Amino acid sequence: MSQYFEVHPENPQLRLLKQAAQILHGGGIAAIPTDSSYALVCHLDDKAAAERLRRIRGFDEKSVDKHHLTLLCRDLSELASYARVDNKQYRLLKLGTPGPFTFILEATKEVPRRVSHPSRRTIGLRVPAHAVTQALLELLGQPLLATTLIAPGEREPMNEPHAIRDRFQKLVQAVVDAGACPMQPTTVVDLTGDAPALIRRGRGDPALLGLSLEASA
């Protein structure tokens, strides 16, 4: 049975988030709000939790290449610890963080190989602009491994915390309820090539990064 924490979306109660952080430290999986949609998250260094995260989402061996797990970071300095970033990339990152953008970057050795792209050694990273997510990351002191909370067989993320608890109460250990999220995916930008490539148009406006509005894939 998952624990349910109802928090204020802008001024979350830290005593409740501390309990959620303890669950994550103990190997649990939590459903949390972000500035794009609800996400499933777990401790970055917990291999078993990461595998359960994939199973909950319905990822199998054939789908691994198609689904980047994302690291939620507190700020750009933390992001730079997990990805190789040059000056040009950093200037672009500053324009889109914090915010609803996911950036595909070359992973450093700090990123466990099991959570990076299996063939390209890349990782999706983002800095969410949501008070609850930021407070939880601050309490943990490190990034969270995350994936959008989409139920197997569905295409749209779940956005109602009570419905999330009802459906996943036997699979996740915590649900953090901060009300409804925008329920739009992040805009995904690949920074591993010679030029930035818009992979998916989402909530983040590509124009803020000086990119074409059309996704390349």
Protein architecture, described:
The chain has a single domain, classed as DHBP synthase (Alpha-Beta Complex). The protein is globular, with a radius of gyration of 16 Å. The termini are far apart. 27% of the residues lie in helices and 21% in strands. The protein contains six helices and eleven strands. Strands 1, 2, 3, 4, 5, 6, 7, 8, 9, 10 and 11 form an eleven-stranded mixed sheet that branches. The mean pLDDT is 90. A hairpin with a 6-residue loop joins strand 10 and strand 11. With 217 residues, the chain is of the alpha/beta class.
Keywords:
217 residues; alpha/beta; DHBP synthase; eleven-stranded mixed β-sheet; 21% strand; globular
List the helices and strands and how they pair.
Blueprint: E1 3-6, H1 14-25, E2 30-32, E3 39-43, H2 47-57, E4 70-72, H3 76-82, E5 83-84, H4 87-96, E6 101-107, E7 122-126, H5 131-140, E8 144-148, H6 161-168, E9 174-177, E10 187-190, E11 197-200
Parallel strand pairs: 1-9, 2-9, 4-7, 6-10
Antiparallel strand pairs: 2-3, 3-8, 4-8, 5-6, 6-7, 10-11
